[in-house]
Amino acid sequence: VYKRQVLFYLAPLPLFLAGLGWGPVVAALGGLVGAAILTGAIDIKTGAFFLLSTGVAPVLLSHLALINRPAQTGIAEEGEAADSDTEWYPEGRLILWCAGVACALMTATIFLVGGSAEGFQAQVKSMLDLIVQQMSASNASDELANLQQVMDVFAKLAAPLAAAVWLLSTLLNLWVASRILNAANRSPRPWAPFASYSLPKSAGFALAGSLLASMLPGTLGFIALIAFTLMITVFTVIGLATLHGLTIGNPMRAFILASAYLALFVLSWVVMVPLVVLALVDLQFNLRARARKAAGPQDE
Description:
The chain is mostly helical. The protein is 76% helix and 3% strand. Strands 1-3-2 form a three-stranded antiparallel β-sheet, with no helix packed on it. Strand 2 and strand 3 form a beta hairpin.
């Protein structure tokens, strides 16, 4: 089971390699071929699922990643990579686009599976109830009651969590593909160090807007909750990038970063909150720009 999950999450990697190295058209062709093979081997639903969940992001993000323009000011306002007199599409905006794709795909899934937020949650809960029934023979009644409560909560959070996992796995594939192409001298663009990843200031309004909209009832509020979860994930990633940038030159940098990642892995949401706050403060007051000016140009 675990091997299948790993293969599922790594499925976009070849398409990212093709798209970033040879252009989005090549990635699109690869996605169509993969969808056609799965359609012939299994069914059309599996092929369509592969095309949407695996093929869309590499094509779109590869297209965006290869956008460039002549340098305007000589200053990377969003931490974007630059070579000579050329500015490339900022990595932070790629992360935002990836979050947008994740939200769109999960929204489509909600309507296709259940027709509405309530219908989707009912479908998820029915699948979880089957798991509880299978476990009923070997567990006490009080344990089953507690498990049922956990399953009810998970049914409500399944869509936001699935979208966040998809976002992180897609970003991981993008990062691995860029590293492989750099190592092979096949990357058509330079990539900024993680410590300089940033967001446009409008991202803060998107975070606040999705939070307010998530309080709405019904399907619209549920979709907004997914968007808010994705924005929290985006700001967590940028919070880590901010921490990388602020600790450049610090003799305790390795310990600080290792502790932050370990705490994030163990405590999850508890650590995400200060990282999001750090990203928001940096977005408003440009903390890393001041730290980089003091420390001089250094890599992550």
